[in-house]
Amino acid sequence: MILGSTGSIGEQALDVIRRHPDRFEIVGLVTGSNAARLAEQAAEFGVEHTGLGVDAAVQIVRDVEADVVLNGITGSVGLAPTIAALEAGRTLALANKESLIVGGELVQRLAAPGQIVPVDSEHSALAQALRSGTHSEVRRLVLTASGGPFRGRTRAELANVTPAEALAHPTWDMGRVVTTNSATLVNKGLEVIEAHLLFDIAYEQIEVVVHPQSIVHSMVEFIDGSTIAQASPPDMRLPIALGLTWPERLSNIGEPIDWTRAATWEFEPVDNDAFPALNLAKQVGEARGTYPAVFNAANEEAVDAFHDGKIPFTGIVDAVSEVVDRHDAPGELTLESLAEAEAWARAEAHTLFAG
What we know:
The protein is of the alpha/beta class and 355 residues long. It contains 16 helices and 11 strands.
């Protein structure tokens, strides 16, 4: 079952399935609004159960038997289908990081061991590398970041960058929010929270390093000094395929590294003055409760405000930080308190843009 079937993750998942038609049967397809493309997909793969929107996703996940549900929905609206998949006992191939980050302890409580398989390239890399040792042998997780289009620029140099420049990612082809989040490193901050929740590793043991070539997707450092890295040319079909068949690997998915050609891989520390999103993400992750939901919602509004010309590029994380500072998290984490916190964060962010 594929949720978000007409988006980037969904289309690439269908490409994986085309390469191995004997291994998969698609029992359900759901997308947000692209009904015409959904109909084409359903006709090609002979899918009986299809739907539009989050409510349809929740209903189909509950009612239609599936071994694996791939959640490729964008944004925190993916939380409800994530919860439905876990409650139904499906293996959840999770590309919708926001649902885990926003849902936090709710999702953790529902998930059985091994029920969530990460599809983000960084977390898939960590899951692969972690098979080299036990949990107690891990010294730290190292997530790699491309650095986005503004790698090497100072905070002062970032003040006047344009939306078009922010969308010119050097490696990945993504949507507006995710691409902008990559430029601010908010996306990497979300991935730090996700890594903590997925692998139960303390925040002080999770680091980020800039790797502009995007060949090493993440690394695990063990207590004996060994570091295990997962490397491959950037191609999301590889982690998607692993998400569908974990821990088994499929053939004919991605091109391997060409070791006959000379290459240089660079690794640099993050400039936290120019890119404060990582430290802020760790702060909200450690605060738990509804703080990550507030962080995510305020950021989505700030990204829109930047692209609408209301705030500068550096104002995105500044606004998120201000909203987080104003937040007073409720004691109990529920779907209702999460919805209230998100609505409050969006409204609070707009007061900043109006001012």
